[in-house]
Amino acid sequence: MTQLLIICGYLCLLLLLGIGASRLFRGTSQDYMLASHSIGPFLLLMSIFGTTMTAFALVGSTGESFKEGVGVYGMLASSSGIIHSLCFFLLGVRVWKLGKAHGYRTQVQFFRDRLESRWIGLVLFPVLVGLVIPYLLIGVMASGTVINKVTAGRIAKGKVVGGTFAEGTFPAFLEQAPNPKAPEEPPSFLYGSQGGVPKPLASLAICGIVLIYVFMGGMRGTAWANTFQTLVFMVLGVVTFVVIAWKLGGQESFWASLQAASAAIPAEKLTRLHIPPEKFLTYMFVPLSVGMFPHLFQHWLTARSANSFKLPVVAHPLFIAIVWVPCVLIGAWATSDLITIPPPVAANPNAVLPFLVQKLAGPVLGGFLTAGILAAIMSSLDSQFLCLGTMFTEDVVQPLRGSRRLSDRHELLVARLFIIAIVAVTYGLSLLEPRRVFTLGVWCFSGFSSLFPLILAALYWPRLTKAGAYACVLAAAGSWLWLFAASDFAGRPNFTVDVPVPTAIDADGAWQLMPVAAMIAASTAAIIIVSLLTKPPGQPTLQRFFPSRAD
Amino acid sequence: MKPAYAVWALVALLIVVHQDIWFWDDARLIFGFLPITLAYHAGISLAAAGTWYLATLFCWPVDEATAPATTKEQP
């Protein structure tokens, strides 16, 4: 119960923050969606970092390290330190400059002007929203799992002991679940909520809280909440690391405990022998996704000046290390014989971190640590909610209305209603069969990465044409759908695209590439070939977007 | 060599050294607790921060003096 009270207190604090931000709200859609371009370096760093680090970073990285070993840091974290900052530097600053000059609020508005295509939004909008939904799903699913695990009891002799709630507190459909190993048996409390807050209820509460503070505070409230939550999850992440190391190592000093915990990691989790080098190499394409995240695009536009980007560009790789190194180590320690991970937890790697927190931290610290994990999750959900509302009003409703633009008041109302609809759809999907957070995240990020050639060409390649852009989006969406279906809709976590090569080059006779490599190859080929075969953009467009190069 | 070229060369170098096949099967622990592959890649993160700091010094893409000052109401 202590954990639950601390979590509730933290959520109330967030609501207060939303109320505080709403007092500064200027009542315009410009202020609601872009905070009137008032965000300085520190808030920009924290909001961008908080947005890019989600359940994927804390819960997913620990779970994946538990499953695959410490090589997971090199696969995604250190490459992200290089590639994310590259995107902020190459794309973010330029987008901000164009956005400020021409009043853009969304990606589609920018592409519409750059490509001289009024209807690009019809193709791009569904693709972007379709990719944001799995991203939202990651957060919604993970928040339910985390709250449930830390408030649940343990199983002893076939019974639940020490749960927060007795059996029968909630309706049976919330409390009971089938035995995953014997689905024909009737659903049981033992495989359901196990005395914790039922997952569907916990996810619903988190969605509600985020919706409220996003609705009240808009982009300013989101930036404040992101900053606060990023600080919370970074500090509490380090505290979690220290507590778990000390408890697992079981030595007098922290240093000795740290060494004892790491010494117990099985050798196969310390190396990358099970990761093909070509898979490791092609994982580097995944972080390119930040270049096309619609919510990050919106955060870039909130910057007060171009110089506001300098701090995020430099500090982002350091922040990634601060968050990921402890999580990856914790995941590896969980594979050692210092702790027994029950089979249901081992089967769901997302539950490893919450399980360790519940098992090794006291109820008070456990409550705070859970708040830290939820902070990481919510700091992404809020930006995504806000961005979806902005995209719907700006890219769909306003263009359809033509000269009869919605008033600011009606625009905000439509944005909020659309956000509620999307959250309802996402929540509904989260109740279906769950997938591993990490696997789902990689697919979602891969989709955005496959659109990276589009934003890069739009900003740096004057020869990009409207037809080339359409071809790029269709090639990216088509290849994503095809490969996603081939992976059994993320049901095969280690799915790769195998390219046959002579055994003299690779003893396996095939290169195992990440699907993202094939998607980027397809979208890049489409954008280049079709652009070169079609009529280049007109002089006014080139003058507007490439003033130094146009004649 | 112009400083901007040197910075871009460093970025390319970071991407190359990120593929550390030389530590692929190395299970050693640094300071008795940090797996060598994790330590190496944490070092890559530090090096990335340093490289991007140099980028902000020598190849920053926007001159604040010429940056747009006003925002149009709507596109």
Q: Low-confidence spans of chain A: pLDDT under 50, at least 5 residues? A: none
Largest sheet of chain A: 2 strands, antiparallel
Principal-axes geometry of chain A comes out as globular
Distance N to C terminus of chain B: 41 Å
What is the N-to-C succession of helices and strands of chain A? Answer: HHHHHHHEEHHHHHHHHHHHHHEEHH
* Strand elements of chain B, count: 2
Low-confidence stretches of chain B: 70-75
Question: Strand-residue fraction of chain A?
Answer: under 5%
What is the radius of gyration of chain B computed over CA atoms, rounded to a whole number of angstroms? 19 Å
Would you give an account of this structure?
The complex is a heterodimer of chains A (551) and B (75). Chain A is mainly α and 551 residues long. In chain A, 68% of the residues lie in helices and 3% in strands. Chain A has a two-stranded antiparallel sheet. Chain A has a two-stranded antiparallel sheet with strand order 3-4. Chain A starts with a helix and ends in a 6-residue tail after the last helix. By secondary structure, chain B is mainly alpha-helical. Chain B has one domain. Chain B has helices at 3-17, 36-58, and strands at residues 29-30, 34-35. Chain B has a two-stranded antiparallel sheet. In chain B, helix 1 packs antiparallel against helix 2. The longest helix of chain B is centred in the middle third of the chain and has 23 residues, at 36-58. The chains are: A mainly alpha (551), B mainly alpha (75). The interface between A and B is large, with 59 and 44 residues.
